[in-house]
Amino acid sequence: MAATLTDDVVGKTVVDAEGKELGIVASVDRNRAAVDPNPSVAEHLLAKLGVEGEDEEDYIVTEDMLDAVGEEVVLRGNI
To answer: In what order do the strands lie in the sheet with 66-69?
Structure first.
């Protein structure tokens, strides 16, 4: 089953296939997530509350880039 992006992943840590932390999910819109690569403590808490949104430093992750979604959002190694 393919990994999907839902509002439940907002605030979760995004890691690459080797486990390197890449940021947190700031927002989700359909099948894409905005990932904040350098979240402050405040931004992390706001994302957990669903208040944080996409900004200019965020990058986009789409469902086809995902390996798994669980405690962390894990990207595929061959992106």
So the answer is: 59-62, 32-36, 21-29, 13-15, 73-75, 66-69
Give the tens place of pLDDT for each residue, 6-20: 989 998 999 999 999
Residue 2 lies in a domain: no
| Domain membership of residue 15 as a residue range | 7-75
pLDDT in tens, 22-61: 999 988 988 899 998 887 777 666 666 666 566 678 899 9
Evaluate whether residue 70 is within a structural domain.
yes
Residue 35 lies in a domain: yes
Q: Please state the pTM of the whole predicted model.
A: 0.81
Assign residue 45 the CATH number of its domain. 2.30.30.240
